[in-house]
Amino acid sequence: LKKWSLKTLPFLPASFLYELIPxxxxxxxxxxxxxxxxxxxxxxxxxxxxxxxxYIYRLVDQMVGVTGKxxxxxxxxxxxxxxxxxxxxxxxxxxxxxxxxINEEEIVKEQTKDSSRNIFTGLEFNTDSKQFDMSSxxxxxxxxxxxxxxxxxxxxxxxYMDTYGATYxxxxxxxxxxxxxSPSMISIYPKDFKSxxxxxxxxxxxxxxx
Length: 210
Description:
By secondary structure, this protein is mostly helical.
């Protein structure tokens, strides 16, 4: 970025590039083989349930290219045999787990609690077509702006302009909020070509087939 701006927050690159550390390449290939075995239809994610553990699995999943398999999150408090069995029996759908985790983040709660205010700037979302206009301000507001230095005034105007085009819905998308009751897309992965043809006859588009 050439200049700092509230409009670019949160800063999310279009893509992230990764490469395997030579020392773990052999271990990664073993995991890749297990995750993509044809006889494996369900994957239990047992990494640490915190952010780092979740990220590690999602990154491995992404690099391995796992598709068409059911994924479930295992949450346990200890590593006893009884607790492990309980965790597997009560494992939740991974996608639903991730969505619920994001929706429970404090920043998401703050934004959904007040749909009129931009959580990133602290300013209210623009609801009309007015650009920044000094003449539309109250005398008190004009006096306050007049007391600012040129640099401070530029920051206030920049913050206003950054907020001008922002919307509540855009912020939810930036935060990764998803409503399970109204998904934007449903992916269907047929188990064979016969199933693929049956799905296409109904009118659905097949995303992938392995």
